[in-house]
Design brief:
By secondary structure, this protein is mainly beta. The protein has two domains: 38 residues, no CATH class; 90 residues, Cupredoxins -  blue copper proteins (Immunoglobulin-like), CATH 2.60.40.420. It has one helix and twelve strands; from the N terminus they run αββββββββββββ. The strands form three sheets. It has a five-stranded mixed sheet, with no helix packed on it. A hairpin with a 7-residue loop joins strand 7 and strand 8. The chain is globular, with a radius of gyration of 21 Å.
């Protein structure tokens, strides 16, 4: 048997990305088989994780961003007018003004949902607003499928 090169695995390890999957098949009701797959989310080195939000005239893109703990999120004003990034709760992060072409970054260190808005063009409940959902490192998901 000829072995395949391990380059994709080596590249993933070099990038700090590791994932594990465990699959089992067990007898199910009436002779059906139930297959359960548990996948552990990629473990990513927090120092190299980055995400970007485009700040446009009256929008954030993406409006909702999901990232792992330790991610540095950068908002860049690509619009023609002044904007800002103001958290709905707290004052630990955010910026008062973001002129065209400038950016602001913040590294999220704790899991949670961080809602924000532009005070010039939105509010916490409408207009130019967004959120960053920070997930815990190493979270896992389980999917169960029943074959007939």
């Amino acid at each position: 048997m000829r072995s395949r090169p391990l380059r994709p695995v080596a590249a993933a390890l070099a990038a700090g990305v590791v994932a594990a999957t465990l699959a089992t098949t067990v007898p199910g009701p009436a002779g059906a088989q139930t297959s359960t797959t548990t996948t552990t989310a990629p473990a990513v080195a927090s120092s190299s994780t980055r995400a970007r939000v485009e700040v446009g005239d009256n929008f954030y893109k993406p409006e909702r961003l999901e990232v792992p703990v330790g991610t540095r999120v950068t908002w860049r004003n690509e619009g023609r007018i002044l904007h800002n990034v103001v958290p709905v709760k707290g004052k630990a992060w955010g910026t008062r003004s973001l002129v065209t072409g400038k950016s602001y970054s913040y590294r999220f260190k704790k899991p949670g949902t961080y809602a924000y808005y532009c005070t010039f063009h939105g509010s916490p409940t409408s207009g130019q607003r967004g959120s960053v959902v920070v997930t815990a490192a190493g979270s896992s998901t389980t999917t169960t499928t029943t074959a007939r």
